[in-house]
Amino acid sequence: MHHKPKHSTHHSPGDSTDAHAKSHRWLLPVLLVAQLMVILDITAVNIALPHIAMDLKMSGSTISWTITSYSLIFGSLLLFGGRAADLLGRRRMFVTGLGVFTASSFASAMAGSAAMLFASRAGQGLGAAILSPAALSIITSAYQGSRRAKALSAWGAVGGAGAAVGVLVGGVLTRTIFYVNLPVAAVLLFASLKVVPADTQKPRWRGLDLAGAALATTSLAAIVYGITQAHSAGWTSIQTHVCGIGGLAGLAAFAIYELHIDKPLLRVERIADRAVGGGLVLMLAVAGTIFGLFLLCSLYLQNVLGWGPLTTGLAFVPLALSAGIGSHAAGHVISKHGVRGPLAGSFAVAAVGMFLLSRVGAHGSYLTDVLPGMLVAGVALGVATVSVSMAILTGTRQEENGMISGLNSTGHEIGGTLGIAIFSTIAAGSGAILGPQAASGIGDAFLVAALVASLASVMALALLPRAQHFLAKLALNPQAMPVH
Questions:
Q1: How many CA atoms, within 13 angstroms, populate the side-chain half-sphere of residue 309?
Q2: Which of 90, 102, 281, 418 has most Cβ atoms within 10 angstroms of its Cβ?
């Protein structure tokens, strides 16, 4: 007896393949828009800060906490957020982070006092610390080889372009920037449930290293706090020394602890890999240089040339475009030449751009004194951002994508915080932060940035693996790598 197959109850392989391809095509845009939202809220608030301070009647001593409360939580929790993505589920953490970030954005928009705003901004930092490494972890697990290089190029382009667009958005929207997150997040939430791969395993709470997370978070928070408050407290103050030395000692204790447990928050031995360890050091340099570039250009345009927030934002559009071009080119260059040569070269070119900017004068011009150096440095730092992320993330095993993504993001945030603190201190060294007299200190800070980029170029040659070794790792499928 023969039975006819019931085709109506089955889908053909071609149908499932088409559906998968369609969802995969939208995966990267969803993750990039989420990251863009996080970045916009960093740079936009910097520009909108004077309006926010006036609205909430904040004094000069408390204004900086609008930024510090965000960076303190964001920077110190990224390692924990990355590991949580591995153990609790990447999509779960992405959606959770998106929800926390959005709710905190609404609270920031509705804040009627400085204390409420600071608490809400801390909530945004928490959401970003969960969302960002989860998104990057999804990218590194979903894309391999040259496709991963292109995906990370797009991620780097969003980082550079988003920072510049944030300056423009902050000048236009001021405090209403927090409301913009609400409809965007609603669309992202719906889309993520459709296109982000579902978590196949149940949450593994027992593997979450809470003691290590507490130690790492406290240590990183001490360092971030010390850096962000050093300008007001003084770099030689007891507070700065206690926070800095205490934080570093805490990180050393964290490393020792992690080496002696079965399921660590961070496999410290992975830093011995030249691509990972060297990339982490260079991430500090590239993030510090990028954040410094934005800060110093903004100070010069607004404080010396007297431009308004909107005009300043428009002035950063060429920087966003040049960084995007550099990020796009990086993927092609890395796939052929590895990361050591491109990173050394891009830092050297960035040093040239910073040197051009160091010549800004009291009565300078945007077209002749700012734009050339901005374009040169922008392209170079776009290449460097993607290259250093590729160095850290390439070759990660499937079960540690979140861990290494968190490490990558931590290096970026700590490096950026260092850059802002150091370069703002140097810029204020002349004693004047407003008017033509401020140009001298800003020029000195650009010159120091050029020296940092030059040193990073040399360090790239010394720390990173040769092209043949890196390209062999790039070609490997992480799932096929042995687990040690």
A1: 19
A2: 90
